[in-house]
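Build the 3D complex.
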Amino acid sequence: MKITRALVLAVVSVAAVVFLFPLYVALLMALKTAKQTFDSFYALPPSLNLSNFSHAWETSDYPTAFLNSVIVTSLSVSIILVVSALSGYAIARGNKPIYTFFFMLFLSGMMVPFQVTMLPLYQLGKTFDLLNNYWGIVVIYGGFGVQSGVLFFTGFVRGVSREIEEAARIDGCSTPGIFIRIIMPLLKPVTATVLVLNALYIWNDFLLPLLYLQEKAYRTIPLQQYFFFGQYSSDLNLAFAYAVMGLIPIIVFFLFMQRFIVKGIAAGAVKG
Amino acid sequence: MKNLGRTIRREMWYILFLVPGVLLFAFAVIAPFVAGVRYSFTNWDGVSRKLTYIGLDNYVNAFQDADLWTVLGNTFKYAIILTILVNVVAILLALLLDSYLPMRNLFRTVFFLPGVISVVLAGFIWSYNYSQGFPKLLSSFGLDVTSPLGNPDQALIGLIIIAVWQGVGTPMIIYIAGLQNIPVELTESARIDGAGPFRVFRSVTLPLLGPSVTINMLLVLTGSLKVFDLVYVTTNGGPGFATEVISTFIYKNAFSSFKAGYGMALSMIFFVILVVVTVVQVSIFRKREVEV
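Done.
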């Protein structure tokens, strides 16, 4: 048994090294100069040199892009959470066919991939002046996110017993009061799920910003990375320093939220 | 009467709660979809205000377009190979991590990590590794390799490897969750009856993992049929036409070639394909699932 276990450990370790190798190369590039890379590709840099980073920080608008990503992601996720919680609660508690109809509508909307609607979406953005500002893209992300969000919240609220609500109603509590005081505190687990799944997707999304946020002042991190890599393809050490800077926030987020992400994915699979 | 009034008021609130969600959804999904259907029957160029209805011409042209068939071939080749690879690797990793392994949480983090990186970054890092990193590493073993992304015969495989690297994390977590739901007694008793580890996996574990397999196959297949970012930022369809997939093909038709009407017809064909694939796949796999 011991031998098997050692063997498994060895196999998993090799796989882990393979998975980390591309990131190791990226970090290595970011820490070395072009000459050091040329002299010896895989050697660690002789001393810790962060000049690539400071150079990348100055030549790129990294803080702007970071701020844009934070604003777009947090606004979108907030809208998705509030709106899906409200709709999900209404669908779970209302017992008229119309609620089932809307539930099915949200469900079938998930079958429509973004690629199919991207051109009309761009037109819509142009018509309603939604390009190159935060609100346009946030509203579109909101519309995408409520589809799965409603499914999550409906499923969760259906599992909550109605007894407390009925008791509160007899005591004269109104529907919004019940929602705010009784339902909302119970929604924490499903809120965490919807939050992390949408935050990861929006933070990393490339296609919608490519359509909606072309202007420099509004570019999010992935979009700005794309342009930066195109521009500095000759100075790879600088480009990699920038790449590593882009990696840091999402890795920190992932490490802190990992528990919720893992739970969210498992919960999402059951829903599907 | 008082009761009736209360019920009506409650229903009013429910409707009110539903309104923002429906509005957002209508604006971001339904309106563009309906507009897209309309554009697909016109010869609109995507810029001018003028559109002329040309009936089914776009659809007729699409089915006679040799490029479309090449692109669909590339897309399905990419999606099917990727789906199989991702699921095989994810099941293997899940099985390995499900055993009593030291530092299993750390390993899980490592395998999931590439999935949280933006595709732009992943594409950039891998393009470089393909052209510089791996050749330098392998040349020390006397092997001479060039970047697969520059070779029409290997470019698609090159992309698939990047996508596997980024894509195994999510299915792996779903498989781990699925494995934890399998009662230990079942695998134990199979083992006592003399089944080896492979037999136990094939006859007990895999059938009981049915629901996880269904959902993972579906997620990865539909996700990879929709691939856009990875192709756009690494090869942009090249070299030649070797990695052009349906999403990038639609994008180019709609935004660069001024054939928006045609691009929308392609989108609609793509949408129908996705629906068919989803329905077929769900019905095939649902039949094979076993209840615990």
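The radius of gyration of chain A is 24 Å.
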